[in-house]
Design brief:
Blueprint: H1 6-9, E1 41-52, E2 55-57, E3 70-80, E4 85-92, E5 96-100, E6 109-110, E7 113-114, E8 116-130, E9 136-154, E10 172-193, E11 198-205, E12 208-218, E13 234-243, E14 246-256, E15 259-268, E16 274-275, H2 278-283, E17 290-291, E18 296-306, E19 311-320, E20 327-328, E21 336-348, E22 351-362, E23 365-369, E24 372-378, E25 381-393
Parallel strand pairs: 20-23
Antiparallel strand pairs: 1-3, 1-25, 2-24, 3-4, 4-8, 5-8, 6-7, 8-9, 9-10, 10-11, 10-12, 11-14, 12-13, 14-15, 15-18, 16-17, 18-19, 19-21, 21-22, 22-25, 23-24
Length: 394
């Protein structure tokens, strides 16, 4: 069975929103598939996630939809410098969070507005690969990562609601964590048999340690009716945040003429992850702003088929374990099941356009905060991801 032509036609098996929604703050899945394409290759992609996440707080009040939509960009350039050496530069936005509570629940809002948070990261990965023959590829290289975050916590404790963020007897807390650059590394091994469209790879990415300068401020002190005392303000102490190490296992193989099966298994070491700005940790008696207590496992598997000389399509299913329950109110879901559909159009042999959509059934979760082990219950939620990618061989 000769399936060599599928090595070009079925690039689609990396449909761009594979990791558009995952446990904790995992967003992209950190694929290196572009680096493993034959010859010289470039691509650019965009994924958009529209989630609907709501629940009831501990007082039985509906929280409203707290999940803000977000997009994630990616790009890659791979050069086959010699028969045995390849070089790749990959850009993605691997970790992040975006939450926006409205004024529905006094546990998460007050006269200043609703609780909100946004965390973003950007990665540049430089990989150098050595191919001793047509089957094996050994690769490694440095990873540059930039991270920043902003959070605004609101709770109307003046109404006697024992609000979600009232640990320090205050109605609000703000933190602005400035951009920080840090370095890590990635390494892996790949094996392929082009004649049967078989590809498999195992990739490790190291943890990356950031030291973010956090500017924090606190709101009104209701016990005295006066502005917060200076001892509870912080104008720039260092907040240490370590983005997690991870392992990706990818597999693809022809199973019949014009048809391939594919699978991705991803492990992310979220257990022990936390974000604790200095003044927040002091005021909240050592408690954390965000924490996860369980590693994440994600599995995506499916089938791709070449339909015509120019069109191909995929169907995939996915499962994500989540990163522990209860979870932070800034991301109150516990894993998911997903179903995805994708299509690829190849006007010529050297370039393509692909797109896809994926529906996520999000797992139920209880939410916690620094001031309470239970702040609400979030059930029956969902999300839809959309992706578009353009690829070019030269």
């Amino acid at each position: 069975m000769k399936l060599k032509t599928l090595s070009v036609a079925m690039i689609l098996t990396t449909v761009p929103m594979t990791g558009a929604f995952a446990a904790a703050m995992d967003r992209t899945g950190q694929s290196i598939s572009a680096f493993l394409q034959p010859g010289n290759y470039a691509e650019a992609g965009l994924s958009v996630l529209d989630a609907d996440v709501s629940g009831t707080d501990k007082n039985g009040v509906n929280t409203g939809d707290m999940a803000a939509s977000y997009h994630s960009a990616s790009a890659a350039l791979k050069i086959q410098a010699t028969d045995n050496i390849s070089v790749g530069l990959l850009f993605d936005q691997p970790f992040g969070a975006k939450a926006e509570y409205d004024s529905s629940s006094p546990n998460f809002s007050n006269a200043l507005g609703g609780t909100s948070a946004e965390v973003t990261t950007e990665n540049l990965t430089l990989l150098v690969g050595y191919q001793p023959n047509d089957n094996w590829n050994f690769y490694a290289g440095p990873v540059w990562q930039q991270a920043k975050g902003e959070v605004n916590l609101r709770s109307d404790i003046s109404l006697g609601n024992n609000g979600a963020y009232s640990t320090f007897g205050l109605d609000s807390y703000n933190a602005n964590m400035k951009n920080d650059d840090a370095w890590g590394w990635a390494a892996g091994i790949a094996y392929q048999i082009p004649e049967i469209a078989l590809k498999t790879s195992l990739t490790y990415r190291s943890e990356i340690k950031h030291e973010l300068t956090a500017h924090e401020s606190f709101g009104t002190n209701y016990s005295s009716g006066q502005p917060t005392i200076a001892a509870l303000s912080n104008m720039g102490n260092i907040t240490e945040v370590i983005t997690p190490q991870s392992v990706n296992l990818d597999f693809q193989s022809g199973i019949m003429a014009n048809t391939v099966a594919f699978a991705n298994i991803r492990w992310v070491n979220w257990d022990g992850f936390s974000i604790t700005p200095y003044a927040f940790g002091t005021a909240a008696s050592g408690k954390t702003l965000v924490e996860y207590n369980k590693d994440q496992w994600t599995i995506n598997t499916g089938v791709g088929r070449k339909l015509t000389e120019k069109w191909s399509g995929t169907v995939s299913v996915g499962w994500d374990s989540g990163a522990g329950n209860p979870v932070t109110t800034l991301g109150p879901t516990e894993g998911y099941w997903s179903l995805g559909l994708g299509a690829q159009f190849s006007p010529a042999a050297n370039y393509f356009i692909q797109g896809g959509v994926k529906y996520f059934w999000l797992g139920d979760a209880d939410a916690l905060t620094a001031s309470s082990p239970y702040e609400g219950s979030f059930k029956d939620n969902h999300a839809i991801g959309y992706g578009l990618k353009i690829g070019y061989k030269f």
